Amino acid sequence: MKYNGDSSAGKGGVVLKRILGTMLERYRDLFYAEADTMRGFMALLMKPRNTGIPWTQEEIRRLKLHFRHLAHYVPFLVIFLLPFGSLLLPAMAEVLDRRRTARRG
Question: What is the pTM of this model?
Answer without folding.
Answer: 0.67
